[in-house]
Automatic annotation (TrEMBL):
Subunit structure: Homotetramer.
EC number: 3.1.3.45
Role according to the record: Catalyzes the hydrolysis of 3-deoxy-D-manno-octulosonate 8-phosphate (KDO 8-P) to 3-deoxy-D-manno-octulosonate (KDO) and inorganic phosphate.
Xref: Pfam families: Hydrolase_3
Species per Swiss-Prot/TrEMBL record: Thiomicrorhabdus marina
Keywords (A to Z) from UniProt: Hydrolase, Lipopolysaccharide biosynthesis, Magnesium, Metal-binding
Similarity comment: family membership: Belongs to the KdsC family.
Protein name: 3-deoxy-D-manno-octulosonate 8-phosphate phosphatase KdsC
Record-linked CDD domains: HAD_KDO-like (cd01630)
NCBIfam families linked: KdsC-phosphatas
Catalyzed chemical reaction(s): 3-deoxy-alpha-D-manno-2-octulosonate-8-phosphate + H2O = 3-deoxy-alpha-D-manno-oct-2-ulosonate + phosphate
One GO MF term: hydrolase activity
Lineage: Bacteria, Pseudomonadati, Pseudomonadota, Gammaproteobacteria, Thiotrichales
Length: 181
């Protein structure tokens, strides 16, 4: 993976990554059953990227405008403790999280796909949108992923951060290790 020097310099500083859900962790579609049950699809490689990133020492949070039990369940599965749901104006939740964490803005990365993400995207150290993010967002972020929402954008960002911080190889070494009899 070739990483632009400017993006790598920003990614080296990241201690906390915040993600939107719809259009970032999912394909931006909502599915409803006849009885009104909402479902979403999550990409497992994105999930594993988050697991590796957390093991590398970068924590993760989620701020989403919608509220659903499935997102809470996914966060529980991935051991994501910082979850803000049902917040269409995301900036107050972001500022609350920054205050709780005691981090500098350049130590925070954010991945968002729509204009409601712009108040956060313009404040963080590394701002990213998926390849299918809104044009108004694409023109205002540090990096436009080569992947669309729900299909690898989060994994790519996690790998960019880990590679820039020199922690990716430890995960490769773990999976490529020789097992002794």
């Amino acid at each position: 993976m070739q990483i632009d020097a400017n993006i790598a310099a920003k990614a080296q500083k990241i201690k906390f990554l915040i993600l939107d859900v719809d259009g970032v962790l999912t394909d931006n579609r909502l599915y409803y059953s006849d009885d009104g049950i909402e479902t979403k699809t999550f990409y497992t490689r994105d999930g594993h990227g988050m697991v590796m990133l957390k093991k590398s020492g970068v924590d993760i949070g989620i701020i989403t405008g919608r509220k659903s039990q499935l997102v809470a369940n996914r966060c529980r599965d991935l051991k994501i403790e910082h979850l803000y749901q049902g917040v269409p104006d995301k900036l107050p939740s972001f500022l609350d999280l920054v205050s709780k964490l005691g981090l500098e803005l350049d130590e925070i990365g954010y991945v968002g796909d729509d204009i409601l993400d712009l108040p956060i995207l313009k404040r963080v150290g590394l701002s990213v949108t998926p390849a299918d993010g809104e044009d108004e967002v694409k023109s205002r972020v540090d990096y436009v992923s080569k992947y669309i929402g729900g299909k690898g954008v989060v994994r790519e960002v996690c790998e960019i951060i880990m590679r820039s911080q020199g922690t990716f190889q430890q995960h490769m070494d773990f999976y490529l290790r020789d097992l002794e009899d």
